[in-house]
Amino acid sequence: MAWDLSVDLIKATVQLEQPLGDGSRTVGTGFLVSDPTPDGKPRIILVTAAHVFEKMPSMSARIGYRIQGSEGVWRYDPESLKIRDGDHPLWTKHPTRDVAAMVVEAPPEFAKAAIPLNYLAQDDTFNKYNLGPGDEMMALGFPRGLSANPAGFPILRSGRVASYPLAPAANFPTFLMDFSVFPGNSGGPVFMAEGARRRPGASESQEVQFVAGLLTQQVELSGERLEIGIVTHAKFIRETLALLDKVPGATVTQARAPKPEPAMPGATPAVAVSAMAMGASH
Q1: Which alpha helices (H) appear in the chain, and where do they start and end?
Q2: CB-based contacts of 97, cutoff 8 Å, min separation 6
Q3: Every domain of the chain and the residues it spans
Q4: Which of 57, 72, 165, 202 has its CA 20 to 30 A from that of 107?
Q5: Left if phi > 0, otherwise alpha if psi is -120 to 50, otherwise beta: which for 123?
Q6: Distance between terminal CA atoms of the chain?
Q7: Is the pLDDT of residue 45 over 90?
Q8: Which carries the bigger pLDDT value, residue 251 or residue 84?
Q9: pLDDT band at 281 (very low <50, low <70, confident <90, very high)
Q10: pTM higher than 0.70 for the full model?
Q11: Which segments cross the bilayer (predicted)?
């Protein structure tokens, strides 16, 4: 039976927020992953962009759980989430990429919504399915702290892959997406959910559904938003989760920049990349 990654990820995606005391709040997006401990015990991990937590100065944030009542009606039911112990962050950050993960105690009904670890793309996924510029992907988030409805579900957006090449992640740790990005989107999952795609050399089509990465930045030039999002590969989410267990021998990718090409006469200067500030005022 066909499964719909879009619905699974909508259920697993949560709003992260912290009031700032001046009537505004800082907002980001996260999603839950089911990743058992090395000894097999169930464990739920919250994944987001590291700068989402770093922009939150207080000890606790709010995580936007949703509860379905006996009559099937959903309601927003956020809970407090401790993110610091004094000056010590309770999340684990990837050493070179804008990715963070922390273990959370989710309500039992919400823990069931966490996506399995194998939904996350691996280093060869893009080449395996011959993915590239122009392919459509989707993203979930809470732009400027807005949700799809009072129940607190995330807003689904879509866009086209806007850069080449996409792999290997060691050389190209991020890729571009052609879609509007707003404060509050940071940390949201970017994924592909295509019903039928033919792999190179294959005679039959198959479903292609995986989490490609998470949204971490937007592109700006001279202060102007270019409607382009920057996605960090899921490979670095996997590496961050491995760091939670301090797996012996686990390797962390040190991203290698491609050798720069000589500048052409009249070439446009490099585009300035701006991390999305999470201060959505309400």
Answers
A1: 5-12, 50-54, 108-111, 125-128, 234-244
A2: 173, 216, 232, 236, 240, 255
A3: 5-247+268-281
A4: 57
A5: alpha
A6: 43
A7: yes
A8: 84
A9: very low
A10: yes
A11: none
